Amino acid sequence: MSINRRDFLKVAGVAAGSALLPNLTVRAAPAAAADESIGMLYDATICVGCNACTNACRDWNGTDPEPDERGTYDAPKELSADTWTMIQLYQGEGEYSFVKRQCMHCIDPACVSGCPVQALEKTADGPVTYDAERCIGCRYCMYACPFHVPRFEWDAVIPVIAKCTLCADRLSQGIGGPNCAEWCPTGALVWGKRANLVAEAESRIAAEPDRYVDYIYGKEDAGGTSVLYLSGVSFDKIGFENLGARPIPELSEGTANIVLPGIILGGPIVLGLIRWVAKRGGWEESWPV
């Protein structure tokens, strides 16, 4: 495959122009406003691993079921461009737990901060949304996300990023909450204002201290998330890292502000070329669960 001079100049011109746009870094709303936004609480002690949430997500978003290595359509093993949420099983010595995987919809998202073209946005309602029309395929969001959530459509002719949207379209249209929560048969998933969900989680822990780890994951982790977790098993065992309480962008933007002036023209050109190539070729990637 070759890129002729006209294609190179076209891509370079568009990319260089995008470099001159203001407000490349978008910061989230204050935490007080975030507490009034929509979130979701997942209680792993109630989850039965039925994957009704996975099917509800597929039904609403029109994604395709994925066969496993045997060609059967069993429960998915990891997130992908067609699987935006799913249930995994942790088994340890004398204990086990189901755990839901999906976008955490951080209050101050690293993916939004890392995107050079504002293809990702933290909305006032709570969801972190994605605009494929703005995306240049650089995949910085994949590298920036501390939860390893965004996925790339490796097999698509014109690939884009795919991830849970917290059903932002349902919320904006007043249809209801996230479809996965609407379909959960056990009540392991509930949605509402984040402040109310935190209060609900605290109430459950206080009422049954022997049932739960005394911790709400997402309340403060990485600056806080719109998706909160309760568990009866230590969070490190079910795959959640100790990220501290500071938002990830606070840790990275100081360095970016030093480096950015020197690469502001060259970077978008390279990213534009990556997008050009990505539209015409295939990629492969695996993510360890």
- Class inferred from helices and paired strands: alpha+beta
Order of helices and strands: HHEHEEHEEHEEHHEHEHH
Please report the first level of CATH classification, the CATH class.
Answer: Alpha Beta
Distance between the termini: 34 Å
Summed up, the domain count is 1
Describe the main β-sheet briefly: 3 strands, mixed
Strand content: 5-15%
What number is the mean pLDDT?
82
**CATH architectural label:** 2-Layer Sandwich
Which range best describes the helical content: under 10%, 10-25%, 25-40%, 40-55%, 55-70% or over 70%? Answer: 25-40%
Please state the CA-atom Rg, rounded to the nearest Å. Answer: 20 Å
CATH fold assignment: Alpha-Beta Plaits
Largest sheet: spatial strand order: 8-1-9
Write a brief structural summary.
The chain is α+β, with helices and mostly antiparallel strands. The chain has helices at residues 5-19, 31-35, 52-61, 110-114, 140-144, 168-173, 179-183, 194-207, 248-263, 266-278; strands spanning 38-43, 86-92, 95-101, 120-122, 128-130, 151-152, 161-162, 189-193, 227-230.
Furnish the topology, listing elements before pairings:
Layout (H helix, E strand, L loop, with lengths): L4 H15 L11 H5 L2 E6 L8 H10 L24 E7 L2 E7 L8 H5 L5 E3 L5 E3 L9 H5 L6 E2 L8 E2 L5 H6 L5 H5 L5 E5 H14 L19 E4 L17 H16 L2 H13 L11
Helix pairs in contact: 1-10
